[in-house]
Specification:
Number of strands: 14
Radius of gyration: 20 Å
Number of helices: 9
Mean pLDDT: 96
Helix content: 25-40%
Strand order of the largest sheet: 7-6-1-3-2-8
Largest sheet: 6 strands, mixed
Strand content: 25-35%
Distance between the termini: 28 Å
């Protein structure tokens, strides 16, 4: 069944290009949503006086991808704490939002928005959640030159970081590889190998929760600590707090466990069981560069951890 949803995520060129790469999406179209004028021009919307948001209409096959997953992918491309701004683009037309057309979709989206608010509160307690959730009022397709803009202009402007597209392919390829595999160790091994192959990080691996400790699991990279205690180091802290931890400089993290002196920055993502409350493992990734990891890494790696 083909359904529709509308995503406003800043400049619609990058958002359109991203969703064109999502498996299960059948059609995308740039346009202007929820403003005061009918059939506005780009020049009119650009004034920020019409109330429109640059928006992408996404048609998708609900038998291949559901609205929850689509919305999680959308949040991986935006910073929901920014008001009327994404990347270098500023103005009300660049506000973020999800616009729905059915009551059923509203219920799904409200649950996902609640989850995203909780994640933002974990990642940045001082931040305010700014992304709109509204019924679609009107949507008008943008001028033809906006459609497929980044295909027509491969070197054209895109506010999205290039690694967003790398992570999307990584996520979808891993999803296809582990689908139907019941053994968690096998899924972890495949995940560590694929992340290393695509992202070239210094160390990627898993620690499993066994008898009150984190025990080394499948990994790619140099030898590492065999066991880590509850609340110890970055991995143990992520397990204890049940949240993703991004460490720009490991030297600034109290109690950091130095498995290798070459590790300079780190991200650790908890892996939860089916009920979403019990942490069964953590995904640990290290880089030899300071400040490697950001919100894009955290958001996509959470999606990847869900596959495990």
């Amino acid at each position: 069944m083909i359904n529709e949803i509308y995503f406003a995520g800043g400049c619609f060129w990058g958002v359109e290009h991203f969703f064109k790469g999502v498996q299960g999406v059948t059609s995308v179209r740039c346009g202007y949503a929820n403003g005061s004028l009918d059939n506005p021009s780009y020049e009119q919307v650009y004034t920020d006086k019409t109330g429109h948001a640059e928006t992408v209409r996404v048609l998708y096959d609900s038998e291949r991808i559901n609205l929850q997953e689509l919305t999680r992918l959308f949040f991986a491309t935006i910073d929901p704490s920014l008001l009327n701004r994404q990347g270098h683009d500023v103005g009300t037309r660049y506000r973020t939002g999800v616009f729905y057309t059915t009551e059923e979709d509203r219920q799904v989206l409200e649950q996902e928005f609640s989850r995203q608010r909780e994640l933002l509160a974990q990642d940045a307690p001082e931040a305010v959640f700014r992304t709109e959730l509204l019924p679609l009022d009107k949507f008008f397709p943008a001028e033809e030159y906006h459609h497929d803009y980044l295909d027509k202009n491969p070197g054209g402007y895109c506010h999205l970081d290039f690694k967003v597209f790398v992570y999307l392919k990584l996520y979808q390829d891993l999803k296809a590889l582990v689908e139907g595999e019941s053994d968690q160790i096998a899924r972890m091994a495949e995940c560590a190998a694929l992340i290393t192959e695509r992202m070239k990080f210094f160390w990627t691996g898993f620690y499993r929760v066994i008898d009150g400790e984190l025990v080394l699991g499948p990994f790619q990279g140099p030898s590492a600590c065999l066991r880590i205690g509850f609340g110890k180091g970055v991995c143990g802290t992520s397990w204890k707090q049940k949240k993703t931890i991004v460490v720009p400089d490991v030297e600034d993290f109290p109690g950091h466990i130095a498995c290798s002196s070459l590790s300079r920055s780190e991200i650790v993502v908890p892996v939860f069981g089916a009920d979403g409350s019990v942490c069964s493992a953590v995904l640990d990734i290290d880089s030899t560069e300071i400040g490697t990891f950001d919100r894009t890494d955290a958001t996509f790696l959470r999606l990847i951890a869900d596959l495990i």
